[in-house]
Amino acid sequence: MSGTELTITLSGGSATDAQKVVRALEPVFGAADGLPADDRATVHTATFTGVGSELPERLPQHSAGHLSAPVSVTVQGTPESVEKASDTLSRAFPAHDRGAASGDQERERQLVLRP
Hints:
Layout: E1 6-11, H1 15-29, E2 43-48, E3 71-77, H2 79-92, E4 95-102, E5 107-113
Helix pairs in contact: 1-2
């Protein structure tokens, strides 16, 4: 992932749900390369290329709003970025961790976010 700090892939839910997930990460990673917009798409992706501020000390549970359906999220990037993203999403939505895989300089984690 040369130059890319974090990439997320989302499936399930609507484009609006995917937008809520992306927006939940913006306080930590800055703006994504674009917001999901196509409701006909079954998979949405977003890339964050710059790291924003530190993980907020207190991000209230469900602060990003409620999802209309479960959303499966795959988070890929540096180990630190993946941990920050996982923590942020787990604070913003009810989340179930589906596991992680690690490489030399990259990590991947799968989460299911619940409505």
